[in-house]
Amino acid sequence: MTVRTTVVVAATAVALTAGFAAPAMAAGAGAGDHDATRKAVRAAVKDGVPGVTLTAKDGGSTWSTTAGVGNLKTKAPRSADDRYRVGSITKTFVSTVLLQLEAEGRLSLDDTVEKWLPGVVHGNGHDGSRITVRQLLNHTSGIFNYTADETFGRTYFLKDGFLEHRYDTNTPEQLVAVAMAHQPDFAPGTSWNYSNTNYVVAGMVIQKVTGRSYGEEIRHRIIDPLHLTATSVPGTRVTVPQPSSRAYSKLARTATGPTYDVTRLNPSLASSAGEMISDSADLDRFYAALLKGRLLPPKQLKEMKTTVAVEGIPNAGYGLGLMDRKLSCGVHVWGHDGGIHGSSSVAVTTADGRHSVAFNFNGDWSGDTDAVVEAEFCGE
Q: Which of 61, 88, 95, 271 is catalytic?
């Protein structure tokens, strides 16, 4: 999730703001020339983002840039090696695991939620027997988004609640129960709405099918094989491993007011919808490997890239934990963005996986992530 207002952001929702789009056939004006990207990163800092770290890979070359600070007190700069909370970028990892399980014949995307999690998605009109795994992954299930619950928002995203509850542990079952207290957004398969609950349920399905937590499966199936040395699934660990910068939020419904250090928090509030930690180089490697077919067979990668329309985001479609967006210069990029307290991140790559960029803002109330993506792939 990304957020311009802390409540929305902290909702761990996705920040479907950034440009993730689809694969590109043309390289775009920005290829090989990062001047526009450097300017866009600096503009984000001028707009109020404390600091930015970015790494791009284009063919065999890797380029990094940073701007601003990683610590408002010491003025220490951000590092190209900074690890950060990636929020809803977690969703692509979760979806990849489920598609691998489908390829192994251990489940079907058309299985119902009820088959694997009897009685979990039930109440106030929710009915897991009418919702498929596919609908969880492409956000067409209609399940209410638990981070949109007013009490949950006050507890974890606004100042007083966050400062009191930042270290609380939430179980997936508790998060789903928050959603079940509300009516569905729509009947399954009839519309689209981003819901973090979908991916909490998806993580629970992984555990039921494999007997291991979704985090263990991500480590076994993705992190270790790709040698993603900066990527982790923290569970209830409240710290971000070094090297890393501080993360800052307004903890308010507006972008004004005091700035708070929100680096330490219990990420179980995001669970399999958004708890992971990574760095820009690892995210570039992950999305490039995914689009190159190194993680999924052709059939499952095609399923992942089969998109539905995303309301409110022009020239974009949402697949299975993967967004496709056409940029202004005609280039398509695939990826995801993610927002969580004090952290706004984007990772995208072209369809052939050759040109990738991943970056992070260590503040959640300002800065234009779209502009950075456009600059890298389209130039000025």
A: 88
